[in-house]
Amino acid sequence: MNIGRAETGIILFFVSTLAGITLCFVGLFQPYILMSSIMNLNIIYGFYCVVTFVSLMLFVSDRIGFLRRMNGDKFVSALLMVLGLHLVVASLFLAFLSRYFIESTIFLLIFGWAGLTFILGLLWLFYGFKIWRYDDYIQFDSEIDLESQAKYRDLFLRYAKLYQHPSEILERHIQKKMNEGKTRKQAIEELTEET
């Protein structure tokens, strides 16, 4: 699997979140660890703000490549939508809790972290839905070369002679070949040989 910047941003965010949850969990059984970390809340929340910002920038910088790599993967789409919704709700809860720290800089850090998490959650929710609706047969102009356009045109003309709705049937046949693990170009070549 090709891991791009967007996937790295997602993994980075969850590793840092798991580290924070682990710190809280260990703090329940070892209170001196939690007490020493409470004294450094500025450092901890500052770290989370930076990590969330970096993961947000990694995701945003590679969002188109992420869409191309995950084209139509329903599991990734559902997971991204659920996690995005969870982040939106959690960030609203964090923003609500930040009002208890109004007199200190911790308020600004928690509120900033909640804002970044809210934006990240909305992006994950949006792109999860976009992956769900992504059609495999739509290709970007930069990926289509002239040779495959000519083969597609010839194949379309053959289908026009055989079928009443050639574009729908041709795209369905191409999609069927692509579901077998072939690229669009390979599917068009095989269909050209078959007809």
Give a summary of the structure in a few sentences.
This protein is mainly α. 79% of the residues lie in helices and 0% in strands.
Shape category? elongated
Radius of gyration: 24 Å
Order of helices and strands: HHHHHHHHH
Oligomer: single chain
Number of domains: 2
What structural category characterises the helix and strand content?
Answer: mainly alpha
| Main beta-sheet strand count, sense and barrel state | none
| Number of DSSP helical runs | 9
- The total count of strands amounts to 0
Helix content: over 70%
Structure characterization notes:
This protein is mainly alpha-helical. The protein folds into two domains: 5-132, no CATH class; 141-194. α1 (5-29) runs antiparallel to α3. Residues 136-143 have low confidence and may be disordered. The chain has helices spanning 5-29, 31-38, 41-61, 63-69, 74-97, 105-132, 146-162, 166-179, 184-194. The chain is 79% helix and 0% strand. The chain has nine helices and no strands.
Features:
mainly alpha
Set out the fold topology.
Elements: H1 5-29, H2 31-38, H3 41-61, H4 63-69, H5 74-97, H6 105-132, H7 146-162, H8 166-179, H9 184-194
Helix pairs in contact: 1-2, 1-3, 3-6, 5-6, 7-8, 7-9, 8-9
